[in-house]
Amino acid sequence: MERQLISHIAHQDHPIASPVSDAHLERLLTRAKLPAGARILDLGCGEAAWTLRALELHPGATADGVDISSHALAAAKKEADRRGLSDRLSLHDIPAADFTGTGPYDLVLCVGSTHAFGGLTQTLEDISRHLRPGGLALVGEGFWERPPSPQTLAVLDARPDDYGDLPATVAQAENAGYATVYAHTSEPAEWHEYEWSWTGTLTNWALDHPGPDGDAALAAAHDHRDMWLNGYRDTLGFVTLLLRRTT
Q1: Residue 36: count of CB within 10 angstroms of its CB
Q2: CA separation for the pair 34, 63 (Å, rounded)
Q3: What is the Cα–Cα distance from 237 to 159, expressed in whole angstroms?
Q4: InterPro entries per the record (predicted)?
Q5: In the predicted model, what is the mean pLDDT of the chain?
Q6: Is the distance from CB of 245 to CB of 131 less than 8 angstroms?
Q7: Where do the DSSP E strands lie in the chain?
Q8: How far apart are CA 77 and CA 141, in angstroms?
Q9: Is 47 helix (H, G, I), strand (E, B) or coil?
């Protein structure tokens, strides 16, 4: 099975697609205090859970969602239709780094997708070209809760400098020309909900679809669960930063 389809299935019961609860997602979007008629851009939008909630919270806003997963974009369109938001959301099947847009935007989101740009600093540099002066970025990024063990690094196929600790991550964002105006550090319960949902939803689907695809999905669920339980659990954190462009 293609990786994008596995990810789409695994996130069906948790379309936020990050270790963030509905309540904290809404709190982050509310703290953005967007102006009337705001323009929103979501780079790596997935099923557009963040964008759709932003549109509901800001009735005059419009948004662009960008992703390379046709499965996720189809789900986003279906959900936008269901919520009556289709006329305010444009979806683009294109790599996030290649999107040019029609900016400037009041808010640019990139939650859990900084890998599409090569890391946090590169992501914020790209976001800056889309933002209006003084505009906001909402960026979700991993960080080391504690120094990773050699076992954790091996499981993640990662290096110690792939992430910093939380202070270093905030400093990295601010050194890219932003000020931190709010943030949410994901709680253990949010991580557990996300991981058990990811692996459990994919496992259920695999059991309902016996055969090669089901076998591949079940193997992916077991691999992911093992990587979490025996690898990055309590070591990898996640912070969602609300940043204001200063330069």
Answers
A1: 8
A2: 12
A3: 15
A4: Methyltransf_12 (IPR013217), SAM-dependent_MTases_sf (IPR029063)
A5: 96
A6: yes
A7: 39-43, 62-67, 89-93, 105-111, 131-144, 178-185, 236-245
A8: 26
A9: coil
Cα–Cα distance for residue pair 141/84, rounded to 1 Å: 31
- List the structure tokens of 194: 């996300």
Structure tokens at 36: 């009337």
| Residues linked to residue 91 through DSSP beta bridges, in sequence order | 65
* 3-state SS class at 99: coil
SS3 for 134? strand
Half-sphere exposure of 63 (CA within 13 A, CB side): 32
Name residue 39's amino acid: R
Q: What is the 3-state secondary structure (H, E, C) of 6-23?
A: HHHHHCCCCCCCCCCCHH
- pLDDT tens digits, residue range 69-100? 999 999 999 999 999 999 999 999 999 999 99
Bridge partner residues of 219 (DSSP):
none
Among all chains, which residue has been given the structure tokens 């790596």?
44
Q: Are the CB atoms for 117 and 126 separated by under 8 Å? A: yes
* Rounded distance between C-alpha atoms, residue 197 and residue 220, angstroms: 14
Q: Does the N-terminal peptide bond of residue 188 adopt cis geometry, omega within 30 degrees of 0? A: no
Contact 90, 55 (CB under 8 A): no
Look up tokens 């999107």; give the residue.
Answer: 99
Structural domains for the chain: 21-188+235-245 (3.40.50.150)
pTM over 0.70: yes
Residue with tokens 């099923």: 47
Given a cut of 90, is residue 51 above it in pLDDT? yes
How large is the angle between the packed helices 188-208 and 212-227, nearest 10 degrees? 160
